Amino acid sequence: MKQSGFKKTMSFVLLLVFMATSLGLTGCTAESQEEWKQISFAYTLTAQEVEDAFASIAQLETCIDNGKNRKITAAYEDMDEKTDYIVHQYVSAEIGYYSDLDDDTAYERYVEAEEYYMDVREEYMRVMKKLYASDLSAKDKIFADWTAQQLKEIETSNEAVIDLERQQNDLLREYLELEDPESASWSKAVEDIYFDYIACSQQLAAYYGYDNFYDYIANEIYMRQYTDAQQEAFRSNVKEVILPFYIEVAELYDTKRAQLTKEQKAQFDALRREACPADNLYLTGYMDSYPEEMRTIMHNLFDKDAAVYTQSDSAYVVAYTNYSEYYDQPYVFYGNGAQDLLTVVHELGHYASFYHFTDATLPYDTCEVHSQANEWLMLHYLGDKLDPDVYEAFLLWRLDYGLSNIVACTVVDAFEELVYQQNALKSPEDFRTVLYSVLNEYENIDYIMDYEDFYIYAQYVTMESPVYYLSYATSELVSMLFYTIAEEQGYEAAQDIYIDLCLETPIGEVFFDTLMDVGLPNPFETDTVREIIHAYDTLHEEPVWDQAA
Questions:
Q1: CA distance 160 to 203
Q2: Which of 149, 182, 302, 546 matches a 20 to 30 Å C-alpha distance to 65?
Q3: Residue 307 near residue 334, CB atoms below 8 Å
């Protein structure tokens, strides 16, 4: 997920993969969809438009300084429109760059737009801080819907904070520019960049009153309200229950895939890898299987041209959903290599939820259930539409992937906790040592990846999505239930729960409370984990795992 805008801010500026440029998000309801304009991501930003944005900020400050309450609101609205445009142009330049990382012109535009964006944002934050500190009556109206965290960012913002945000941006861009990830030099360069990123992020967290970046971002940004004890219980379940089950599933998947004919393997590979266009029959059929409101929302991704597909072999291999304040609607970026059926459906889940929720006020664990549960419902939908052998192999592959992802994401989270909370990296070279110390706690972890592959994987995700991956693990476990509910209670029953989760559950709830509200169990309890595994086990004629083990 990605977010943009100035109104609702986050202290770090660029998190690649599902969340970059996270500076605001506003929800849009299905009722307003007919008012939408067609989105254009053409980069057309001029120096004059940037100056106009600065001028609008200056006009607001003049109104504040003169105590002109009646003019402040109008000045703010004018500024908001102009700064939203700057953000949109930054996003457009970003999309242009992500569409072809080898395009020098696109890169230059991206760097230019980012500089404009950061300069305007710095001035915006300064003036909004002045307004918030004032006793003017207009501020009550302007800040009425800002969250406590957003207000905290306004209060905390200063030149030093902005500079640290710029440093984060620069380091992440430096990482993205690295070439040849297969080489030892790439890994060494990432170690150096990551070490600097940690130092920068730790300083930033201190401005927000936190001892470390891990706690800051987990609490303030991702809204993880669970306790240390719950987190440790989840890790224990992953080690003792999820990993052993994964090994059994992986062996069964390997067996089933090996039994496919050449033609069946081609069908299987197409499902996994081929790009899924808007008119894909499985995709359109799946969207049409929903009641009218959800069906219309899903179709709008394509009907409103809100899906950006890239074709270049040099595109950034990533898919993410964002919200455009300027166009007041969500959109999705699908990089070449991230356009297969389930990836399209994953982002479609985020897209649908953006109609109803301001995702910055929701736990990110909940947000990832929106996306991953959509995959599992699609898997159920495909049950009677594929060759039975192909379908079983595809389902087992996704279960294999889901379970391994839970384990890998949990490992990464434990590593990042050591890095930020305990300052475990004394030098860039300690990256491998600290990671291996975590891996050593997981018996048979090499069934998922060997230590060297884990090292490369961890380098990618800790740079691209700092402290984020635990949300994938917790949400994946819950999302798997949607398939079993569809199998046991019926497809419509599972859809009803999903619609409730995406379009009706109150915002801002604790992750566990949200799950209970829609009839789902707590994923942090051992009994829940075992029940999920048992549910999958009973779907096979021959159980793949002994519960007594």
A1: 10
A2: 149
A3: yes
Rg (CA), the chain: 23
Mean pLDDT of 481-496: 95
Q: Which of 214, 468, 507, 228 is nearest to 364 (CA)?
A: 468
Angle at 495 between CA 295 and CA 17, to 5 degrees: 75
Q: What is the mean pLDDT of the chain?
A: 89
Specify the length of the chain in residues.
549
| Residues 95/113, Cβ–Cβ less than 8 Å | no
Dist. CA 19–CA 8, nearest whole Å = 14
Q: Is the distance from CB of 321 to CB of 307 less than 8 angstroms?
A: no
- φ/ψ region of 24 (left if φ > 0, alpha if ψ in -120 to 50, else beta) reads left
Q: For residue 114, how many other CB atoms are within 10 A of its CB?
A: 21
- What confidence score (pLDDT) does residue 358 get? 56
Q: What are phi and psi of 113, to 5 degrees?
A: -65, -40
Distance CA 346, CA 362 (A): 18
- Report phi then psi at 334, rounded to 5: -120, 105
Distances (CA, A) of 251 to 27, 266, 309, 390: 44, 21, 35, 17
Strands of the sheet with 307-309, listed across from one edge: 307-309, 329-334, 319-324
Copy the structure tokens of residue 313.
Answer: 């072999």
pLDDT score recorded for residue 542: 60
| Helix, strand, coil percentages in the chain from 3-state DSSP, rounded to 5 | 65, 5, 30
In whole angstroms, what is the distance from residue 313 CA to residue 417 CA?
A: 35
Distance CA 259, CA 401 (A): 19
Q: Let me know: does 36 contact 306? Beta carbons within 8 Å.
A: no
Give the model confidence (pLDDT) of 387-443 as tens digits.
999 999 999 999 999 999 999 999 999 999 999 999 999 999 999 999 999 999 999
Question: Could you tell me the domains of the chain?
Answer: 1-156+306-337 (no CATH), 228-305+340-537 (1.10.1370.30)
User: pLDDT tens for residues 97-119?
Assistant: 999 999 999 999 999 999 999 99
- Residue 171's pLDDT band, with cuts at 50, 70 and 90, is very high
What does the pLDDT look like over 259-304, one tens digit per residue?
A: 999 999 999 999 999 999 999 999 999 999 999 999 999 999 999 8
